[in-house]
Amino acid sequence: MLNSYPEIEADTGVRRQVLSENEALMVVAFRFQDGAEGKLHNHPHVQATFVESGRFRFTIDGDSFEVGPGDSFVIPSEARHGCTCLEAGTLIDTFTPRRDDFL
Description:
The protein is mainly β. The protein has no helices and eight strands. Strands 1, 2, 3, 4, 5, 6, 7 and 8 form an eight-stranded antiparallel beta sheet that branches.
């Protein structure tokens, strides 16, 4: 069964849409405008990120790196992380378990 969640403004220049979810796993699209930020934060969920489009500078536990289309990486549980959008684009994030705060 397909889930139908609205796209919402998550922060200035960032839109979020839950694409699918169940108790164990969630898939979410984040659409960023140039210069928008995903502020530094942490959570208990393991997160895998796939760069669908655009360019981003990520910081995870103090280490920074740039990613572009086709890149992917995993963010461990409780790691402090965030990003800056260098070129407008979309990130597809998966979370395990599901992020109930996004519902």
